[in-house]
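User: structure tokens for this one?
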Amino acid sequence: MICFELGTDDRCTDPGAHATEKDQHARPMRGLAHLALYDHHIVQNRLLAALSGEVLAKLAPKLTLVTMTPRQDLCQPEAVIDSVYFPETGMISQVSNLDEGEQAEVGVIGREGMLGSALISGVETSYTEAMVQLAGTALRMSAPDFSREMEQNLAFRELLLRYSEAFQAQIMQTAACNGRHPLEQRLARWLLMAQDRSGEEQLVLTQEFLAMMLGVHRPSITISARRMQHAGLIRFSAGRVTILDRDLLEARCCECYGAVTRRFLALLGPSFG
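Assistant:
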């Protein structure tokens, strides 16, 4: 694992002074975790960890460790992207908002990736909403710093271009999956992806939130989750999901999980499998 010294964020040294709503939710961690801002931090985000120590050392002063809380909005549709996030734990959902007020998840981002990929293509605004699905931490970089690094740092740019292609594959496969496969297979795929990206053994999720993300009614999630629980694949209680048998869950889901995993492996290497 790679360790490095993180920079500080002047905007967050006094959370009560001139703090925006986003900074109040995503500020440098306090207590012992806050020491990571000034001491050595073990990189858990796989994109950043794939970089050489030399490249990472140049990025470190521009990265700030922040907390992410459930349902925290990190970006709104058509809004200017002011920061990018490299999750270390937890997971972010990219959500499409429909005119009728309904929402559907179109992509998920965890420790394998980053939020703010539109900037990779030089686009300054977000097409979707981004909200925290599973609580955790992330390394945040300002959009101007990110754009400068994309221009000046060849290794960083090449890695993120490959990630952008892998993430687009995830989005396209999700669209195909949601349109053609039964809910139980889609739920199995989603749970596997959530565990991969968050690194958590237990996922803090309500059936209502899962239904919103998968674009179905809650009773449908209840029925599918109950079947999977009876089969010994998962345990679902009190807003928490535990995967009991990952091999059986992979066998139960559709080919979409494997297809996306293989694309990440092909483009980014074995640490992304």
